[in-house]
Specification:
The protein is of the alpha/beta class and 375 residues long. 29% of the residues lie in helices and 25% in strands. The chain is globular. The model has no long low-confidence stretch (mean pLDDT 97).
Amino acid sequence: MKTKSAVLYEMGKPRPYADSQPLVIEDLELDKPGPGEVMVEVVGAGLCHSDLSTIDASRPRPMPMVLGHEASGVVREVGVGVTSVKVDDHVVFSYVPMCGRCQCCGAGRPALCEKGAAANLAGTLLSGGVRFSKNGSRILHHLGVAGFSQLTVCAAESLVVIDRTFPLEKAALFGCAVLTGVGAVVNTAKVSPGESVVVFGLGGVGLSAVMGAKLAGASKIIAVDRLTSKFEVAKRLGASDCIDAGNTDVVARVMELTGGGADYAFEAVGNANVLATAYNSVRRGGTCVSVGLPHPNQQVSIQAVSLAAQEKTLRGSYMGSAVPARDVPRYMGLYQKGLLPVDELVSPSIALEEINMGFDRLADGAAIRQLIRFA
């Protein structure tokens, strides 16, 4: 069948994207779901920096590819052997399809699924299959989701069934921004009440980390960014202090505010230099959590002796160290109780045809999470 999709054929096109048009809106052929696969009508899809990092070649992927990894929708067809979802279920996508059988899945760390990571790197589904095509040529899937499409096919393992009463378009945010940011705080770092937190980068993930820190009961939550326009939102979400990284010695200011360094720092920018600054902002015995995704060629430089002499920790957090089937419904419940004010992340929605302009706004920091309106 036909589906309208946003396809990236070439990475690294110049900005503004409204002029260079890296994402091409066109009709693709979409095959029926194979065994273990599901066809979903996409209702909500968010524009995320991970998509932008593929567009600008910071995170290289094979081309051509239907982008989009933060999405929600309605199941329209299931393949042979699928029992975990059924037609008309409301679902949120997980951008790591989790095989449930590899060493990481067996150890309770499905976000690191080995088979899922290999499929994502190749641009295929968990089975190795590709269901999009144009004139007989394959069009790949972004992170097993390919959410910038009216219809998409994914592995059943990429889906979390949610309550039908939850606003479905908004549910998309729980598949990436909220899952990653809140999860980094509560799953990876396990911040305790009374501890201090500093968050570097106030995009959708960083602001979700601010929400997570408040949820965890952090006594001081410091938000850091070069765009001071983000500070009011950060304060509404729980930030006690904000630091303009463009004209401030951030490490010195964090030391001053915390009396010697934060207990936890979260780097949500995806830049090795910022990661080093975040590491230097934590106290003796503190932990720095790398959440953003720098270009693979970037290297981080820290004082090696501090790892032993100060017992500082530098660790990673991918997808908020989440178990999506557990965490997506949990975070939705916290939102419904007013404990995760996710509405603060939502920028004005856009049509699929406006997607290149939307990525200009995201790159400029003029939007947090824009959701695509599908006709």
